[in-house]
Design goal:
Strand order of the largest sheet: 9-8-17-18-19-16-20
Radius of gyration: 22 Å
Number of helices: 14
Number of strands: 22
Structural class: alpha/beta
CATH class of one domain: Alpha Beta
CATH superfamily of one domain: FAD/NAD(P)-binding domain
Oligomer: single chain
CATH architecture of one domain: 3-Layer(bba) Sandwich
Length: 446
Amino acid sequence: MTVERMTNDALIHASSVVVIGAGFTGLSLAYELAKKGIEVTVLESQDQLGGLAGSFEINGANIEKFYHHWFTNDLAAMRLIEDLGLQSNLIIKPSRTGIYVGNNFFKLSNPVDLLRFKPLSMIGRIRLGLLTLMVRRVSDWRALESKTAAEWLRKMCGDEVYKVVWEPLLRGKFGNAAEDVSAVWIWNKLKLRGSSRGKGGKEQLAYYQGGFSSFIENIADEIRKLGGVILTQSAVTELVVSEGRVTGVVSNNTSFIADAVVATPSLPVIAELLEKHGSQDYLEKLRSVKYLANICIVLELKRSLSSTYWLNVNDPGFPFVAVIEHTNFASPDNYGGSHIVYLSKYLPEQNELFTMGDDEVVDYTLSHLKRMFPEFGREWIVSATVWRAKCSQPIVSKWYSSVVPEADTELAGFYINTMAQIYPEDRGTNYAIRQGRRMASRFVKS
């Protein structure tokens, strides 16, 4: 189901709703329901709010476990911040981006940098630059559903640009699934980044003062003020069903009664909840959407690696698709003067890197990082933290719209609202917020 179709569904009459999951989707949904005067309870299985936008502490400051930022055209996030009267907490700055290819670093922050990008011929540089214009001319993403990203990029840019720029990035992101990724996915990524540029063509990004966890707490505080309830360490283990309709859930051996239940976790988790209640065909459809897990290493360093915020790595021997130096965007002063670097990789849960112990992961990571930055040494490291998450990235394949489940399920009173349904956009906090708020528009108090 596409998001556009969601708002056309029948209204849901409910005076009480249970929301499963306290990520941005669940909290945005709960906030809108509470504003409507609907009694809402949010149940979160983890010990903190935020889901994949959860945080931890470095030098007394909260920072995301997995890197996060917004684009300036992330309107759902911007509108929610405005609704809450928190615009003064928004930080908008130009970002410095680059690419590592052929054992060399190249800036790619503006059109002039592109013209100096030596790994491509001049014709290749021009074709890469024109891609942004061609992306904007796509008026209907459905025309791209029958094509893979590889097929479409080769046609748009030619083999040279694809081999040098796009193939390494797709393989770095999706691994063996790279050839299956839909053209819709890469088109949307390019559209989003191309329309988040300021004067001179520089990309503008946004961050929240105090980190995303501060914004999450701001939303949660407002939900509570409006009478909503939010409980952590409260995994939902069972649905309460009567005569084919969900009437509540069970968490921590406690029943929570509701007129409607909305689940926001990944589709495999939702399929487990429905195991006793859904048809085999429906459960298979939920499980047909495949995901990649993510492993993210967060380094707290005494020194900066480079002046670049986002460094794409087009080196097939490097295990991470990018080196993100967070403190080249948010000031090191926020973290006691430390420099924060993220190294992130999407991969199957069975991948050796995902199953390694934390110390092994760090050793493995540092050996590769030193190859890129020869001056880098262990003495730079203040701390190194490893985070893992299952079902982090849905694999958006051709004709993905045919497998995306609708919000309404086979079970009356039970609805799903997940990042896998954001299509044609890709996962991200902005679209999670939009997803939650749009779902809430379907509810009316009985």
